[in-house]
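Thread amino acids onto this structure.
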């Protein structure tokens, strides 16, 4: 049997059958190594805020505006630059608006086509012609390539370009062309997108965000705990299903499930009305609903209470089924004195704010009633049978992971669980011990088992681990000693609501600890290029907190995309740009609306902070892709040597 290298070279020769073909590819790859690295865009904790997320994606956290400034400098007014930027973000809507007031659309088309072509030239300048060609919109690929590519053989380029542009206008294709080239610019200003967790919950449009991400040209996703609980729900884990519905109810977003995913909530609504119809459900007020319809709000509050009680029961069952999760203290229903209306926690008795529990049997408090059982059976079938939800969750599985090392940056959503002394915390999962990177790897394996395992025990454990990741103190995506959901609903005492963060957050400024975490994931703390990028805990900028930790080695970029947190943070999200010039952190003000962005040409007001600026531009050769290209070049050089030595024959 031939050795592996011979077989590999033989397969490689099928792709590059001649000396000329192998040589050409080596030259091409070597040239790519010397191009500037593509722009990476980091976003985290989007939490269903579709409009703000979409706008930040369209403007590339200011990347489009920077390209416009690079091209036009002082030759365009600020107003004209903003108009051009708005046209690039929302070409179809902006053209419709202009048509209402512009008397000479032909001139307007001509002026803006020239401007868009110049911006697209600049955006395309650091990519190979082949890569740009692949990004071109199909309908106008040839024309755009002609317009943005230098053609030295054309003596009078101005007349050549003029003729193309005038023809586009004359045949009535200017609007479609503007839409196409604007889309190209948006695509070229960001080469790769990183979503560092929590696409789901709180905001109204996570399903729309997922649709958008599924069509994005290049991205990876690091799961957040809110993403994983949705994954668990899609896999049929009942506690995850209950949590997903409860959070949607709490934020007045049940239409995400009903309209976005087509999940039938009528059985839950009917049960809630029958069981809690005379209950004011005062402890289950909704968050974030502007001017809600009173009847709708009351119905949602009843559903909110109904699914919350079901959740506490099912979680108690899960805790008993998985004693290794160490969550016995979080099974609370059997700690209630139902006659007195009190609960005993940590040896102290507290008065409950709500004592109406018609479906709880004090002797067997975690048993679902027959009606609750029926509701959950229907919901389980609805979640596991929802084609769109399954499609979205499998996209998260294919593009996502619990962490990622990319171009010397370590990306994860929450924290690396630590002991009080700053050392890596050892965690037991199903009888085996893990810590640091191995804990992340083990948890991710079990998540995938929850969807794909054939063995029933592995499958059930995989489903349950998604609930574990959601709220366990040892979960790297949660990072607190408890999730005080029950206490926040039923107890007035603030002391019971407190959730103590993992020691990771105490050591986030400690260089020795951060260096040990980087080493655990194969990174060198001493290198200028290495950073940790994570979200999960909103940075309270209004209180003077900085997202930049540990002398620039750690960046916590959750600044409050979710409207529910913007009062705490004082801003509406951080994003991070990593381009060939360095790292740029962008703080965003709240986004008013898409309509305002079009009508008033109002962008998201953002402040940029340079985290690191390089003396020389970073090249593709310095990136992970560059490492792969260098390996390909080395393989091709071996192939070339084999051709020239006679070991392999050219396949002419």
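Threaded sequence (652 positions):
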């Amino acid at each position: 049997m031939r050795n592996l290298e011979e077989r590999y070279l033989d397969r490689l020769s099928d792709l590059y059958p001649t000396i000329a073909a192998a040589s050409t590819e080596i030259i091409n790859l070597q040239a790519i190594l010397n191009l500037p690295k593509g722009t990476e865009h980091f976003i985290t904790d989007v939490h269903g805020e579709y409009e703000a997320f979409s706008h930040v994606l369209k403007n590339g956290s200011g990347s489009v505006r920077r390209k416009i400034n690079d091209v036009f400098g002082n030759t365009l007014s600020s107003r004209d630059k903003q108009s051009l930027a708005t046209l690039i973000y929302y070409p179809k809507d902006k053209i419709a608006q202009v048509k209402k007031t512009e008397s000479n659309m032909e001139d307007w088309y001509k002026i803006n086509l020239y401007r868009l072509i110049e911006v697209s030239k600049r955006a395309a300048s650091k990519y190979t012609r082949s890569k740009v060609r692949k990004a071109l919109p199909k309908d106008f690929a040839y024309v755009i390539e002609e317009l943005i590519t230098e053609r030295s053989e054309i003596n009078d380029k101005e007349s050549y370009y003029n003729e193309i542009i005038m023809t586009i206008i004359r045949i009535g294709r200017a609007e479609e062309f503007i839409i196409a080239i604007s889309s190209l610019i948006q695509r070229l200003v960001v080469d790769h997108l990183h979503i560092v967790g929590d696409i789901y919950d709180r905001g109204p449009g996570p399903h729309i965000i997922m649709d958008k991400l599924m069509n994005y040209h290049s991205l990876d996703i690091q799961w957040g705990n809110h993403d994983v609980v949705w994954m668990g729900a899609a896999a049929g884990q009942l506690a995850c299903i209950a949590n997903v519905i409860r959070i949607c109810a709490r934020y007045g977003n049940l239409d995400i499930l009903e309209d976005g995913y087509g999940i039938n909530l009528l059985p839950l609504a009917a049960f809630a009305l029958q069981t809690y119809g005379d209950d004011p459900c005062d402890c289950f007020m909704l968050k974030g609903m502007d001017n809600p319809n009173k009847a709708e709000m009351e119905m949602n509050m009843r559903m909110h209470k109904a699914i919350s009680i079901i959740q506490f029961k099912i979680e108690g069952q899960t805790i008993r089924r998985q004693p290794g999760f160490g969550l016995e203290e979080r099974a609370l229903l059997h700690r209630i004195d139902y006659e007195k209306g009190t609960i005993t926690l940590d040896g102290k008795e507290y008065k409950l704010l709500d004592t109406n529990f018609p479906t709880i049997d004090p002797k067997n408090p975690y048993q679902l009633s027959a009606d609750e059982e029926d509701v959950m059976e229907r919901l389980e079938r609805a979640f596991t049978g929802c084609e769109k939800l399954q499609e979205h969750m499998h996209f998260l599985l294919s593009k996502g992971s619990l962490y990622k090392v990319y171009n010397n940056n370590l990306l994860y959503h929450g924290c690396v669980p630590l002991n009080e002394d700053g050392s890596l915390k050892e965690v037991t999962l199903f009888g085996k011990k893990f810590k640091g990177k191995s804990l992340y790897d083990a948890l991710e394996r079990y998540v995938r088992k929850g969807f794909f395992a054939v063995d029933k025990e592995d499958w059930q454990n995989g489903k349950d681990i998604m609930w574990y990741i959601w709220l366990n103190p040892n979960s790297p995506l949660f990072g607190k000693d408890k999730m005080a959901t029950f206490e926040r609903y039923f107890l007035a005492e603030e002391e019971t609501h407190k959730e103590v963060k993992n020691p990771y957050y105490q050591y986030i400024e400690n260089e020795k600890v951060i260096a040990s975490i980087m080493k655990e994931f194969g990174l060198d703390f001493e290198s200028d290029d290495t950073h940790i990028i994570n979200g999960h805990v909103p940075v309270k900028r209004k209180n003077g907190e900085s997202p930049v930790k540990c002398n620039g080695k750690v960046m916590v970029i959750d600044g409050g995309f979710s409207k529910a947190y913007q009062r705490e943070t004082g801003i509406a999200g951080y994003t991070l740009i990593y381009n060939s010039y360095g790292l740029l952190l962008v703080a965003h003000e709240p986004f008013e609306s898409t309509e305002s962005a079009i009508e008033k040409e109002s962008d998201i007001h953002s402040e940029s902070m340079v985290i690191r600026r390089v003396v020389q531009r970073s090249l593709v050769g310095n990136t992970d892709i560059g490492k792969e290209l260098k390996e390909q070049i080395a393989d091709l050089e071996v192939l070339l040597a084999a051709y020239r030595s006679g070991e392999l024959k050219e396949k002419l």
